[in-house]
Amino acid sequence: MTNASPTSRETIVNALLALLLLGLPLLAFAMGEPFYITLATRIAVLALAAVGLNIALGLGGLVSFGHAAFFGLGGYAAGILATHAFDGVPLFAGIPGTVSMPVIWLVTMVACGLVALPIGAISLRTAGVYFIMITLAFAQMIYYFAISWPAYGGEDGLSIYVRNEFPGVNTTQPLPFFLICYAVLMAALGLFWLLRGSRFGAALQAARQNATRLSAVGIAPFNIRLVAFIISAMVTGVAGALFADLNKFVSPSMMSWHMSGELIVLIILGGKGRLFGPVAGAMLYVLFEFALGGITERWQFFLGLILLGVVLFARGGLLGLLAGKARHG
Amino acid sequence: MSIALLIEQLLNGLQLGVMLFLMAAGLTLIFGVMGLINLAHGSLYMVGAFACAAVAAATGSFWIGLVASLIAAAAAGAIMEVTVIRRLYERDHLDQVLATFALILIFSEGTRWLFGSFPLYLDIPPLLQGAVPLPGGGQYQLYRLAIIGVGIVVAIGLYFLISRTRLGMRIRAGEADREMIAALGVDIRTLYTVVFALGAALAGLAGALVGALQSVQVGMGEPALILAFVVIVIGGIGSIKGALFGAILVGVVDTMGRFLLPKALALMIPAAQAGPIGAALASMLIYVVMALILAFRPSGLFAAQS
Questions:
Q1: Closest CA to A252 of A152, A329, A180
Q2: Which residue of A has its CA nearest to B230?
Q3: Neighbour-count burial of A167, counting CB atoms closer than 10 A to its CB (0-12 exposed, 13-18 middle, 19+ buried)
Q4: How many domains does one find in chain B?
Q5: What is the C-alpha separation between A63 and A50, in angstroms, rounded?
Q6: Chain B contact present for A261, CB below 8 A
Q7: How many CB pairs under 8 A join A and B?
Q8: Cβ of B276 and A136 within 8 Å?
Q9: What distance in Å separates the CA atoms of residue A139 and residue A137, rounded to the nearest whole number?
């Protein structure tokens, strides 16, 4: 792929965004302002969740309105495993809980993969509006299940008493925990970049642009989309586990349809299908939330207005503004 | 379990179904004619409920409130269509989802601004208070029966509107080929505004009717909206008949599931566990039904469009 000028400009913008997200908490640490480190961690985790969704939505054109389910599953994986480890009660069949983040992430990815497989297999039989609504409905199903299942707090949610552990890192301090989240985000961005450039990514994007033509060259769009949907769910799930660790709390509201909407909003604010779109979107979103939330209790009203303006008049999002149009739609 | 209790639960399911039909009919009409997915339909439901509660509190009459709810929801719908929705018809569904999601944020916070965070209450009108006896003993709330009646009247009215009137003819023509009817001289922009306002008024009516059964509060539209989505996905998007069938199915399955599943489970496992597990499963039941239907008929039971 030749480096035409908009591409290189996007690379520079991406590098700046990555440095900005890393630099701000370091600066906050130096100034002794842990609150801003937490804010940056929130940006990194939400960006990670949106990077996951961006695989399905940006590359594959699959508008999943139910990714909050995977976000919440990750959160509950972290919460449930930590609770069992804390209480010393085995999960089932003698398997103990754990407070080790890598193990939790692994369990999250397996769980999200297992849930995304049937959801994807049924949802992908449909397209367009049906796909949007059926993914929403599946997420609601899991949401209501989490609310009415009393074993893990039900509607009240589940507290994580001590943040889960990562080998060699003191996760209870804000900065090391931020660095873990940042590293996972960068790894996910690397995965997105690899996928986009791979043969699989080419097929996935072809499935979005012209599914009939893809079938004509002998590749079944369904399988490609299903795999993308599962990978996407796994990445969003890991973000959910980190989000639960960030707040030391998980509740069904992580799975609510509002959350699914927010994840889509992050991508659109930043730029759909762009590598750093979710990062730019999460930065903007958390900053809006923080800045507007400081001025008025009714910040969601203004968020709505801004979002409406972006959808109606500023297609392409922040990256479209900073780095020019995407190379192909 | 007595027969009367079973009949009561069936009627409750029917009442929920009728309420969902009022929501789903507007959604499916708007999708069928304009190809638009409108998440903010739940906000119009909320507008109807708030208008009814506020006007009923001010005038002391539920009936004036009911009329106000129709007017307020239709007006809100028309304004929404002219200012925002009109720009979205040519966009893809993702843009429609986002813009109408933004509208939800605006409507919810705007309503909270106007009315505060505390719920409003709406009394059942004196005419419809009381209960009627059921066969097999027991009684049933008259107001809920009246809601079922309203739903039946609206369903018949919509059928005549769509199949017998000039407006209905235009709506059907708009579903089939919008360029063609524009070329034949029909003012398509006005038609779209009218259809949108009609759908909005039905949602507002549903909100006002349900407002007397529950509290009227911000966020009340969202659960109703998602159930209405399930309804139109089951019924086939764009089909009013599908919306009616899907609404009754969802209403009855949901209500009967919550009533019967815990009891059925109690026959197999200890009652202390059967209650919560049954309740958890019942809350998922309609989504399971939807998934099953879509697995076999991906475009719903009464798919209107190819």
A1: A152
A2: A137
A3: exposed
A4: 1
A5: 12
A6: yes
A7: 120
A8: no
A9: 5
Residue B84 lies in a domain: yes
Q: Are B128 and B140 in contact (CB under 8 A)?
A: no
Query: Cβ(B233)–Cβ(A137) under 8 Å?
Result: yes
* Token digits of residue B174: 């708009």
Quote the ipTM score. 0.84
Please tell me the distance from the alpha carbon of residue B73 to that of residue B201, in angstroms, as a whole number. Answer: 5
- From the CB of residue A44, how many other CB atoms can be counted at a distance below 10 Å? 29
3-state secondary structure at position A219: coil
Structure confidence by residue, pLDDT tens digits, B40-91? 999 999 999 999 999 999 998 899 999 999 999 999 999 999 999 999 988 8
Q: What is the DSSP string of B173-201?
A: HHHH-HHHHHHTT--HHHHHHHHHHHHHH
Q: Which of B74, B40, B21 is nearest to B227 (CA)?
A: B21
Q: How far apart are CA B200 and CA B206, in angstroms?
A: 10
CATH no. for residue B60?
Answer: 1.10.3470
The model's pTM = 0.88
CA distances from B266 to A146, A275, A294, B82 (A): 21, 52, 52, 54
- Is residue A53 within 8 A of residue A281, CB to CB? The reply is no
Shortest Cα–Cα distance, B216 to chain A (Å): 20
CATH code of the domain made up of A5-323: 1.10.3470
Q: Is residue B302 part of a domain?
A: no
Contact A136 B226 (CB under 8 A): yes
Which residues 143-182 on chain A approach chain B with CB closer than 8 angstroms? 144-145, 147-150
With respect to residue B306, please indicate whether it lies within any of the assigned structural domains: no
What distance in Å separates residue B207's CA from the closest CA in chain A? 21
What's the distance, CA A191 to chain centroid? Answer: 13
Residue-wise pLDDT tens digits, B91-137: 888 889 889 999 999 999 999 988 888 888 888 888 888 888 877 77
Tell me the residue range of the domain where B19 lies. 3-296
Which two tokens mark B186? 């029909």
| 3-class DSSP assignment, residue B139 | strand
